[in-house]
Structures
1.
Amino acid sequence: MIENDIERIFFSEEEIRERVKALGAEITRDYMDKKPMMVGVLKGSFVFMADLVRAVNTYCDIDFMAVSSYGNGTSTTGAVSIRKDLSHDIAGRHVIIIEDILDSGVTLSYLKGYLMNRQPASISICTLLDKPSRRKSDIKADYVGFLCPDAFIVGYGLDYAEDYRNLPYIGVLKPEIYE
Ligand code: IMP
Ligand code: MG
């Protein structure tokens, strides 16, 4: 059972549900009549995205990108590559990038610059988790679910070597799992 690998729960299912609802309400208010293009960054954001869009009560488009900046370890390699691009044109559109976690910021600052070149009307960033203490790039999220301690966390879409994405809450692994 994957739950046995978790040392401590940081954010419970209940806390996440409440916070995601509040974020959805904020986005609904800010993007009413703008028909935002919600762009999920795969794979980490897929669980958050699925819950978030159901808390957004305005017309919106949904698209995904896949980027890779990590190997199977727990810290960034610094290099970002696009593995799957958008299937919609974003020129003149209001884009909201949906991320699981903003860590060094390398991934999101690259992605924001990449999408900015296509002349969208605006781009904002919505991240479930923010680890501001780890920031290397000058980037801020417009919508943040939770501030997160400087620990490697898993669950609710976040993985360690592709495991634990399906855990319904967010927690830290027991140290022996990394050995
Ligand atoms: P950044 O470019 O360093 O901001 O990294 C962002 C990406 O790294 C996220 O989208 C995650 O996929 C991954 N990541 C960063 N921190 C964690 C963590 O604590 N657990 C799992 N994945 C993480
Ligand atoms: Mg990842």
2.
Amino acid sequence: MTYLEVAVAAPLDHTLTYGPPERGSGLLRPGMRLLVPLAGRQVTGYLLGEVKETPPGHWKIKPITEVLDEEPLFSARQVTFYRWIASYYHYPLGEVIRTGLPGGLVTASSRRVLLTESGQRNLPGHASYPWVEELVRKGQLTPAVTRKIWRTKGRRLVKQWEQEGWVEIREEIRRSTTRIRTESCITLIPGSELPALKPSEQKTLALLEELTAAAGQEEPILRRQLSSLYSGAGQALKGLAAKGVVRLHEKPVYRDPLGETLAVADPPEHLTPEQSAALEQLLPAVRQQRFAPFLLHGVTGSGKTEIYLRAAAATLNQSRGVLVLVPEIALAAYLEAQFIARFGERVALLHSGLSAGERFDQWLRIARGEATVVVGARSAIFAPLSDPGLIVVDEEHDNGYKQEDGLRYQARDLAVLRARQAGAVVLLGSATPSITSYHHARTGKYQLLTLAKRIEDRPLPAVQVVDLRRIKTVSGYPPLFSPDLVKALKENLGRGEQSLLFLNRRGYANLMLCRSCGRSVTCGQCQVAMTMHKGRNELLCHYCGHVRAVSAPCPSCNGSELIGVGFGTERLQAELGRILPAARVARLDRDTCSKRRDYLAVLRAMHNLEIDILVGTQMIAKGHHFPRVTLVGIVWADAGLGLPDFRAGERVYQLIGQVGGRAGRGEWPGRVIIQTHQPDHASIHLARSNDYPALYEQEISLRRGLGFPPFSRLINIRIKGRDEQAVAGAARALAGYGKGLIRSGIRGVQLLGPAPAPLSRLRGNYRWQLLVKGIEVESLHLFCQRLVREGPGLDRRVMVSLDVDPENML
Ligand code: ADP
Ligand code: ZN
């Protein structure tokens, strides 16, 4: 008898052992999904492998209920990776795997309680359980309600009633929503004598023979292709099948997400000396097939992509896979086009711009080894490449690599880890590296590759800083369009050149004030101001998605007149229409472009010079290469400067560097206008002179002084719940226990807090946090583990989660 180790998609901190399914099944391989019994339910499990030791005899090992896949969705080698993640991020292994896999793949059973006829007559009223009334009224309880009851004493009551025959407990399996797609196909049965055929059948057969001959003898013909040629084919095919002339069957097909991609330039004939020098260091490491981390620090427009592409080609020559991570889906469009142009069919895409079905198909192509180059966003770090030899992380400093809910992983860090486990080269690229990565390069942990010049020695853009404190609202321009900016936009328009206007906020007005009481309209669930979206005529909470009508009265005083204050990208676009009516203005942000089709259309229009001014959020800030953009306006650089975060200075520098880097990438020199209320801010100064080493020195000495990363590691313990007292109490109890642990001898660990989080209320939850700082990883993790596992038993109304290496302290 073999025993199998299974991780279930449930919050359990250990794996489970099952036996093979009772009814015969095909080959069982690690990486397949299974349906397994757990505490009276059926849940999805992931097969990790065989159990080495025989479990103790008194345990009753249950068999697997069903094998859900015919082929593995991830490789046995990935199990090591998943295990490391589970332990480092203090997250259940099965949930780690579920997070890594494409969405919609969870199959589980759920219970429902149904009232029987006898129950209708006999069921006693039961005042203390409000759901009893619902059961009587509706005749049944939904799986959601049933699940809640199962966690309470009500469960025993329901079981009792089942014995009495008053209710029935029905268990149903909900299948995963994402599946392999198939299409109806027809194959000719090569054969002997033809039976007598009707005219329609003859016609269909003739068409089919023609198509088959054109496609090659082996290929089945798609039914819809045939039907598009002859509408009577459907009926005739039934006849042909009955007469044994054709075989009708289903064939798995991939949903193709690509459609058209962006146009790309031809590969350059010669590398620049800097590019050659970088590749001379990289390529030997690729050939040696060992772990080697590199930081590629290249100014914007220095030709980093060409380095990625050449390193990728060398890796494929070694018959190993390539993984390219991009922080943002709009930027993925630019990189994926280049990789597809170079490597064609071998490329797979994995990001949220694809539908769930498309993503699943891309995943299968990788798992089957059909695609060996993966371009994707954060979650593509889990891609099932069997043997990655190169992992590229473009714009490695970008905080889009940090997942901010559920499994709070940092994909850039995982890239380094996965490369180490796989013996691969990891290449982190950026014009404005994160302070931590640059520190690793300075101290020899990473090899530093530098591209200090733009291609063809093009100059970096000239930067002008506009002090918004001195700007009076002139001649009807709204306050955030300084005369300098308007003038520059006009000049650019006159020359037929393109401009980008960057503002890190969506919507029309990000603050709504009441005319009578002066208070701002905040979301009832979150203590944050709601943003007005004019196009939708709604106020929207950007944290929880809560919506209010614009015409609804002030929630504080019932006043009827609200005024919109402050700016968002929607307002910028509208104002531009007024100031520069002749300009063709487009907008790129999550409101206008959440789908691949939408942002590709905007990017293409930009490349085709059909847009004069592109307004947008960080979606326009990163990586794009628009040769005719010669002006970049940063409308309000201060957004972000006041944040209570030790990385704020670094972030502002990076943002200005990135957005500014979009200007002057072609033959025409570029300029950048930064509007700010804090022109003397050090980060703005340094960004203006493009002095990264000075920024690094400034930030690193700050962090050394405060003992922040990279001189320590952090774990933020987040405590939340709907009851304010319970949350605060839990935070204090945890902190008290932690202080005790430190007194009892855990060294090198420091506790900061507890304190309410800066966003102290979100989605109806009160939030507190407790920051743990440690010099050594091991003792820090041990400390947090003991704190959470052994610490004070917490109120059931409170949830505790760990944010390891937090990047967002809000
Ligand atoms: P980065 O990612 O460093 O900002 P890109 O990789 O987008 O810059 O390169 C900028 C432009 O330079 C692209 O149009 C690219 O095709 C071009 N380019 C790259 N390498 C060379 C080269 N060796 N010779 C000429 N053009 C090049
Ligand atoms: Zn909200």
3.
Amino acid sequence: METSKRPETLRWVGDSADGHLLLIDQTLLPLEVREIECRDVPSVWEAIRALRVRGAPAIGIAAAYGACLGLQRFRTADRSAFLTELDRVIEYLAGSRPTAVNLFWALERMRKTASAFRESTDAAEMLEGLMAEARRIHDEDRAMCRAIGRCGADLLADGSSVLTHCNAGGLATAEYGTALSVFFTAQDQGKRLHVFVDETRPLLQGARLTAWELMQRGVPCTLICDSMAGQVMREGRVQAVITGADRIAANGDTANKIGTYSLAVLAAAHEIPFFIAAPTSTFDLSIASGQQIPIEQREAAEITHGFGRQTAPDGVPVYNPAFDVTPARYIRAIITERGLISPVDAARIQSVVGN
Ligand code: MRU
């Protein structure tokens, strides 16, 4: 049940010809809930790159609307100019972030939508079609998140305490989230739940976003530094770990926010089940294993000058991978909108996701 009203993570305002995208600027949370307007493709690219909109499904949705923004000026152009521009816009948006496959999945849907139009279709109609596809991607994500919640809630017993990392909530999706959807659904079913929230260095998505979302919905939670997870597990305070994902390879190896792999290893050491919650749009069956997942490298300043204060000596060499890959063997199950994938192996993934 919703306990408070806030703007949607992202929404399209107006019609296809001259509407625009509004999104919550997540870099300002939890201090300020402010929507920003994106009226052109570079502003969508920048919002994705700067993590104003973030989380794999939300990035895909933003990019789909971004493609529509890019084609507004071409609605009176001829068909071939329209399609050439669409290719250019897709290529540009695809360069915003490399790891979350939902970005490429959504852009591919937009490309396929346009190429399916008949030769006689004019550009204005094609733009309408792209807009409809972007809205479908958005709506489908809502439904997928709800279904993931229903599927995963069965895994949590009344009174259990779970740990999560980064933010896989409504802010990372159309609404409701993936990992957080499991918690919200369990709570809606009347189960008592407690969530340990990793703060998630260096950009603090756990502290700034997940703690905020859980508190808004009245889910009891406790914030910890990432380095405290082992101690919390050793003290017997956690019965399950559930995180989201940015890309899942055909064999189940899963990329998610940096620190997830360490959590999975810790969970194995303490015999705590480790789950991934993700929609089928996060699977990349074109790659065999996690070794082929591109890992985003981000600016040193996120570590040396986090949130405006210098915390490391000038010129110190920095390594800042934004994601890591958890081998499938550490994952007890993947919670999808189509059901549970367990054991996590290529055959089971193919039977649930491949079609
Ligand atoms: O860098 P971010 O904040 O985009 O990373 C997000 C995550 O790692 C999430 O866990 C993932 O995208 C799943 S969102 C449902």
4.
Amino acid sequence: MADMSVGLERSNGIAILTIDRPPVNALSHELRKLIAARLDEVARDDAIAGLVIACAGRTFVAGADIEELGLVRHPMLRDLIDTLERIGKPSVAAIHGTALGGGFELSLGCTFRSAIADAKIGLPEVKLGLLPGAGGTVRTTYLAGAEAALKLAGTGDMLDATSARDLGLVDVLFDSDLVAGSVRFLADRIAAGNIPSPVSSRARPAERTDDGQLAKMTAELCRKARSSAPEQVAKAVRNAIDLSFDDAMIEERRLFDAAAASPRFRALRHLFFAERAAAKPVETVDAAPPRTVQSVAVIGAGTMGSGIAMAFANSGFDVVVRETGDAALERGMKRIRDTYDRSVTRGSLSREDADGRIGRVSGTTEAEALSAADLIIEAAFEDMAVKKQIFAEIDAIAKPGAILATNTSYLDVNEIARSTRRPSDVLGLHFFSPANVMRLLEVVRGADTAPEVIATVLKVARRLGKQPVVVGVCHGFVGNRMLQARNSQLSRLLLDGADPADVDAAFRNFGWPMGPCQMQDLAGLDISWRNRKALGKVDLLPDRLCENGRLGQKAGKGWYRYENGRDPKPDAEVAALIEELAAESGIARRTVGEQEIIDRTHGPMIDEGRRILEEGVAARASDIDVVWVNGYGFPRDLGGPMYWDEHFRTSSQ
Ligand code: 3H9
């Protein structure tokens, strides 16, 4: 790659090696070769007493190059790190931005690590189904102990520089002038003869970590990640305590190689790039300069409206929530305050932060209060006539250039847009409930939506910490349209012989957090019942459940019975109803196996995905994967439904 360099300057006997490979200095093979050559220069130059490794651009090395992971090309990263340790000259890694994965491992090969105060370090390999492969688990265990190493590499979460220093992973912090400060720091240490030996030749961590505690932590990490990947990390950390340094390194590498050869890694790498591609404007949009968005108005203070308001307040936007009546407005504002209060009680938010966020949300019943908003999001009742009336009203009030969005989950965004005189400013922003928590945001591009409107909301989505996916207009867009297809065979499966618990167990075994029956109970069976009635459609089994008052968890009964609130229990009444309807329809019930359940639910979902692609409602198959993984709980380890269909499904048949 042309725009890549590794510079070497000298400053009073200290060499400064600067890695420059935009955007994130990922350690590709070419880059490793350049670094190796510079390290060789440093080793051979007697005038150099010490080395500072720094990075140009927005960050320190953010890891090995994910595109190239699993390829064996020398020098390997571990060779570079060995060289650093054996070069016979003390070194400092000067960290700004994020030192992640192989980047943090590179820094662990240095004698010291310095960091700018807002820098972060991390070992996120586990999020790719991997573990650190160049000494990250071993050296972190040597420096910070087994529990800290397991937490860092097992969660993959970043650690701020101060916490890293407190754990012994960073030696010195600077508020500014990181590189100059690091040079001075190193020169002082050399002058004082105060240079520790490389991590690899230090004493093995004496601490005998409580096996039970490590096992408990590992189980918790796997549960939270819905993945067994943290188990590999735990093994590597355990080895760092039990084996010699060299043997622990060999074992870490063996575990890494096995993980990098696994289908799970390929699926997660697919998602890594898919998520970034989905968040970027496509070519036609590229040229359009985004508009500025700071003030946001939300119409409707129900569950969805207040969730959306909180999502924006959490990211520093000013939000005004509009309801038509005082009572509904007060209920919505109370819901917002209560949600923040609960976060404070749980300890996930400070009182000060909660008050700041509450303070950013104001309520109004006056339509005119929306006139200053840069972005207006309608989150009212899911009814076309209601929506058109609202859009006609905001069209008359909104300032020129304001973006007008509907949070509809199904309705025709083009029809809504045409109820205004500015359809090019209108689009769908389909948030998922709870909107302040769920990452997915379907950005629904209408036939007339202006490119810069799409570019603007993609930028807004990034600030919100959401995962956007641009989709086209159709009933239910990508997610709900495929969900309907997935559930289309549900009643027939049950009548054929499965019971709700069988179906849900098959889904959980597949990797879903819950099955469709439990999910429908949670959401309320009456939502689709109302929809069916509006469309003149009948689905005998769930219709009868609703007629019998079995509306789901909120009614204490749906597909299951709920005695203690949330715990689903199979119900003989439902079993009898299924038997009765099967008999009425002349269906002889039989055993329906897991594979059949998966085939008859997932098959129609994939077929619908293909139609969505053919129609251009989604631009890429990987966009569909991003929707399902981030909005519906499709198991990440399987890469999303379209990836699963191509890479896993055939092998399981
Ligand atoms: C590893 O290190 C294994 C080792 O233990 C062992 C080896 C033996 N490689 O996210 P952004 C691209 S595994 C290649 O939008 P941000 C990314 O695709 C690695 N490309 O920016 C995007 O490209 P484009 C462990 C990478 O500011 C562009 O950079 N490290 C890599 O929101 C900007 O990315 C990780 O897992 C990479 N490693 O966030 C860290 N990283 O513009 C993964 C980024 O063409 N990276 N790209 O779409 C991140 O978490 C975020 O990118 C980061 C910046 C926080 C750094």
